[in-house]
Specification:
2 copies of one chain form a homodimer. With 501 residues, chain A is α+β, with helices and mostly antiparallel strands. The first copy, chain A, folds into 4 domains: 200 residues, Histidine kinase-like ATPase, C-terminal domain (Heat Shock Protein 90), CATH 3.30.565; 69 residues, Helicase, Ruva Protein, domain 3; 145 residues, Ribosomal Protein S5, domain 2, CATH 3.30.230.10; 43 residues. Helix content of chain A is 37%, strand content 22%. Chain A has an 8-stranded mixed beta sheet with strand order 7-6-5-8-3-2-9-10. A 5-stranded mixed beta sheet of chain A has the order 11-12-15-13-14, sandwiched between helices. In chain A, β5 and β6 form a beta hairpin. Chain A is globular. The termini of chain A are far apart. Chains A and B meet through β1, α1, β4, α4 and α6 of A and β1, α1, β4, α4 and α6 of B.
C-alpha cells in the first residue's frame, strides 16, 4: 500500500497533538486553560501601568463541561487583532527581545481549539483598549485552514480597558482545582503587585496577592545582542536591509555595536565594511555569522529588557504567603548565556515549623511563571543539592525554603513541558554563587539565634543563684529578703528577654 | 508601547520552541534526531514486506558538530514528495486509522531545521522506491515561509529501495550515546525482526536485533470507529459528501456501521435517514455527533489496524536481550477506549541475578516505541504497583522484569514528552488483568522450583542411607558391596536430576 502524502494546518497539528500543548487529559486541560489565560492577562497588564486585577472564574457545567473565565484590567486587544489572536494558531503580538511569560501564538488559541472540539462552544471575548470602545465577540476556529470564524461581533463598552475571555471545555475541575490554586498562589510570589481572585462554582475560593503596590520595572524592548544572532536571524536582517552597508546593518540591528566595534568585528571577519547587503555571498554571510560568535569585543548584553521581581517585592511576597521568621534576598547579573541576558534572584526563608529533610524546599520560577513540575533535573535543583546545607541549617529546628527566579529574554527549557530549566553552565554558576551567599546569611542568623539562646540561658542560671545569695544573706542578717528582681532585670537589658521568672 | 501583531510559519514556531519537539539541548538534540529518523525508517519498512535493516552512523565532527546518518531498506520516498517530507513542517504521509510510530509531519523536519540553524548544513537524502530510480538531494528549509529549498537533486541509484538521511547538527554525542544505545536495544525488543547496526565514529559499536525472521502482521488501514469521531471529524465527512444521504455517509465513512446499524443510530438521533449532507443544520450535526457517543449498538472496533509484537516474537526478543530463565507472555484485547481499538501485551521474565527491590523492573512500550522517561505517573507503573508481588516473587531470589506494550490507533500520552501514558480506565483495567495473570504464572513457576528442589533433596538423603544399608548388609553377609548406583538412579527417573554423587 503506497502512503498518501499531504500537509496540515498548525491548528490541525495541535488538535492531533494536544498533549504537546498541555492538553493531554481532562485535568491538565482545565489547568492549562487557566494558566494560558492568566499569563496572557498578566502580560497584557505589564504595559498598562495599572496594578493588575485578575478574576478567575471556574464553573462546573453539565456532563463534565467546565467554563473557564479570566478577566483582567490590562491594555485590551486592538479591534483588528481579536479574531486572529484567538482564532488563528501561531498568531500573536510580535516576538521581541524582551522578557515575557507566554509561548508566542499558541496558548490561548490552543485552549479555544480544545474547547471547540470537546464542547462545540465558541470562545467569548470581551475586550476594550484605551483608544477603542469595547467589543464582544464569539469566535470559532476553522481547524482545517487555521482561520477564525467570527460568530458574532457587537460593540459593548466596559468600565475601562481590559479583556475577559470565557472558554468552555470538557475537563475535570475537581482534580484540577488544587493544582490551579497552587499555581495562582505561586504566581503572586513573583507578581506580588497583582491581585488574583479565584471563584469556583460562583463561590469566592481564594483572594491572593497585591502584597505590594509597587509596580515592577517595565521590561524595555531592546535590539538583540550580536552573540544571540544565529545564521537565520542574520540572513533576515541582511535581506531586510539590502541597500545598506554591512557596517550600518550591524550598528542598527544589534545592541552593544557602535561604529568602532562594527569596524573591529568586520576586520575580525575579514569583510569590507562598505559592502552592501545584497552583494554579500552566502559564504561571506556565514563567515560573518561565525565571527559574531568568536569575536570577543562585545560588551555584555543590556539587562533593561528584563524585569526581575526585586528585593523589596520578593521579600514582601514570600513573607505574605509563607509563615517565615528569617528572610534574605540575593541577586546575580545581568549576565549572559549565548547572548541572552539573564538575572537570577532568590529569597531564602526559614519558618518555625520543624524541618523534615536536610535540603531546603525549593520553589522555581522563570520569567515570573512558577515551575511546578519536573524539578528533578532542573538546574536550580542541581545547584541546591551541590550545597552542604547541614553547615548552615539548624538541622531539625527550622523549615527552610528557597525561592529562585530566572529572568531572561530566552528560557532554556529542558523539554516540552516547560517546567524545568536546562543545565546551562552560565546560569548554573550564577545560581550557585547566589544560593551560597543566601546559605551563609542563613548560617549567620542561625548562629546568632544559637548564641542569643545560650546567653539568655546563662543569665537565667545567674538569676537563680543571685536569688539564693540574696535569701542566704538575708537570713544571715536576720533581715527581710531584699528586692532582687529589679536588679536582675537590669542585668538583662540589651538581651531580648527582659522578664525573668 | 503598543504591541505589534503578526503571524509566523510552523517552521518558525518550532524553531523558536525547539524544546517542544525534544531539541531542548545538545544531548537531547542528538538523541531526538536518531530517534525520529529510526522511527521513520521502521515505519517505512513496515509496508515493504522485507526484514528491516537499519544502520545508524554517528560521527563527531569539528567544534561539537555531529553528523547523524540513518539508512534503511524500506519503501523509499516517492520522488515528488521528498523535498516537502524533509523541508516543510507539518507535511507527511496521510494520517490514517492505523498503528504507527512517529508524530505526523514533525520529527524528521524538526531535526533538519535544528541542523540547519546550528550548523548551516543542508540535509542529505538518498532514496529510491520500488518503481522510481534512486535520487540524491541536498535540502534546506525556508523557515520564514515553511517551504523547502532544494540545493541539489541528482539521479543516483541504490541497490534496491530504501532511504538514507544525513543530518549535521550541533550536539553532544558523548552524553547522548548511552541513551541512544539503550533506546535502540529496547527498540529491538518490540521490533525483533529488525536488525540495527550502530556505528560511532566509524567503529561498529553494537549490532542489535533480528532476534526472529518472522514478520509482524502489517496493520491494515481501516475506517474510524464511530465512537472515535468528534464533531470536527463528522463535519468534514459531511462536507466531503454533501450530495449523499446521511445514512450512506455513515455506512461508507465508519467501521461497524451497516445499513441496519445506521438506521437504528439515526432513529436514536431523531434524524431522517434520507436527509442529504448539505441539508443538515449545524444543530442536527451536533445532535448526530452526540448520538455517536451515546448510541450503544456499535460492535467494538476492529483490531486489524493494530500490530502487536505477538507471543513468539516477544518471548524470543526478551530472551535474546536479557539473561532470563523464566519467561511468560500474555495479551488482552482488542478492547476500546473512546472508540480507539487497543491491545495490551506483556512478557514477565525472571533472571538468576538477585532482586534488590520488591517490585519488578518495568519496561514500557507504545506502538513499538520504547518509553524511557517519566515512568512515575504512567498507567503501567500504577498497575504494577497495585499488585502485591511478594505473593508471587521468590523475594530476594530472582530479578523479575515486566515488559508491557500498548498498541493503539491513538496513544493517550500524558504530556508533551510522549514518554508516559495517561490513566485511561479501559487501558488500566486490561493492563491489571494482564499483569495479574503473568504474576500468577511467575508464582506457579516459583512454587514448582521450590517443590522440585525439596524432592531432589529428599532423594539424595534416601540414596545416602541406601548406600549405608547396602554396605552394612554386605559386611553382615561378609560379601562385596552390591552395585547400588543403578538401583538408586532408577528411583530418580522422572526427577530432573538423574545423576547422584
Amino acid at each position: 500500500m503506497a502512503a498518501v502524502f499531504n500537509s496540515i494546518s498548525p491548528a490541525e497539528f495541535f488538535y492531533r497533538n494536544r498533549h504537546m500543548a498541555g492538553f493531554g487529559n481532562a485535568t491538565l486541560a482545565v489547568y492549562s486553560t487557566v494558566r494560558e489565560l492568566v499569563e496572557n492577562s498578566l502580560d497584557a497588564c505589564e504595559d498598562s501601568g495599572r496594578l493588575p486585577f485578575i478574576i478567575v472564574d471556574l464553573v462546573d457545567e453539565s456532563h463534565d463541561f467546565v467554563s473557564v473565565t479570566v478577566a483582567d484590567n490590562g491594555t485590551g486587544i486592538p479591534y483588528q487583532h481579536v479574531s486572529e489572536s484567538f482564532g488563528k494558531m501561531l498568531f500573536g503580538s510580535k516576538y521581541d527581545t524582551r522578557q515575557k511569560r507566554g509561548t508566542f501564538g499558541l496558548g490561548a488559541t490552543m485552549a479555544v481549539l480544545y474547547g471547540q472540539i470537546t464542547t462545540e462552544h465558541a470562545v467569548e471575548v470581551h475586550t476594550q483598549t484605551g483608544t477603542s470602545g469595547g467589543h464582544a465577540y464569539r469566535l470559532l476556529i476553522d481547524i482545517e485552514h487555521n482561520v477564525p470564524i467570527v460568530e458574532s461581533d457587537s460593540t459593548l463598552d466596559r468600565d475601562g480597558p481590559g479583556t475577559t475571555v470565557t472558554i468552555h471545555i470538557k475537563g475535570d475541575l475537581k482534580r484540577a482545582q488544587d493544582r490551579i490554586l497552587e499555581y495562582l498562589r505561586m504566581t503572586t510570589i513573583v507578581t506580588p503587585h497583582a491581585k488574583v481572585l479565584l471563584r469556583i462554582n460562583r463561590i469566592a475560593t481564594a483572594t491572593l496577592g497585591r502584597w505590594t503596590e509597587q509596580l515592577p520595572s517595565v521590561p524595555v524592548v531592546s535590539k538583540p545582542h550580536p552573540r544571540a544572532a544565529d545564521l537565520e536571524m542574520l540572513k533576515r536582517l541582511i535581506a531586510e536591509n539590502k541597500q545598506k552597508s554591512v557596517r550600518s546593518i550591524l550598528v542598527e540591528s544589534f545592541q552593544q555595536v557602535g561604529d568602532h566595534t562594527a569596524a573591529r568585528l568586520l576586520r575580525h571577519a575579514a569583510l569590507d565594511s562598505r559592502k552592501v547587503g545584497w552583494s554579500l555571498s552566502r559564504e561571506e554571510i556565514s563567515r560573518l555569522s561565525a565571527a559574531l560568535k568568536s569575536f570577543d569585543g562585545f560588551a555584555r548584553p543590556d539587562g533593561s529588557c528584563l524585569s526581575p521581581v526585586g528585593r523589596d517585592s520578593f521579600l514582601t511576597s514570600v513573607k505574605s504567603v509563607f509563615p517565615v521568621s528569617f528572610c534574605s534576598y540575593g541577586r546575580r547579573g545581568p549576565s549572559e548565556w549565548e547572548g541572552n541576558p539573564f538575572v537570577v534572584e532568590g529569597v531564602l526563608a526559614s519558618g518555625d515549623s520543624v524541618d523534615e529533610s536536610d535540603v531546603p524546599v525549593l520553589y522555581r520560577f522563570a520569567n515570573k511563571v512558577p515551575l511546578l513540575y519536573d524539578a528533578s533535573d532542573d538546574v536550580f535543583m542541581k545547584v541546591l543539592k551541590k550545597i552542604d546545607w547541614s553547615k548552615y541549617c539548624v538541622r531539625g529546628a527550622r523549615q527552610v525554603y528557597v525561592f529562585v527566579h530566572l529572568s531572561s529574554t530566552r528560557i532554556p527549557y529542558r523539554a516540552a513541558g516547560k517546567q524545568s530549566i536546562a543545565l546551562v553552565p552560565e546560569i548554573e554558576a550564577e545560581a550557585l554563587t547566589l544560593l551560597r551567599g543566601l546559605a551563609r546569611e542563613l548560617g549567620k542568623s542561625a548562629r546568632e539565634l544559637g548564641h542569643r539562646g545560650r546567653s539568655v540561658k546563662k543569665m537565667h542560671e545567674f538569676a537563680k543563684s543571685f536569688r539564693l545569695i540574696a535569701k542566704f544573706g538575708a537570713s544571715l542578717a536576720e533581715s527581710d529578703i531584699p528586692p532582687t528582681e529589679r536588679l536582675i532585670s537590669g542585668l538583662f537589658e540589651g538581651s531580648d528577654n527582659g522578664r525573668v521568672d
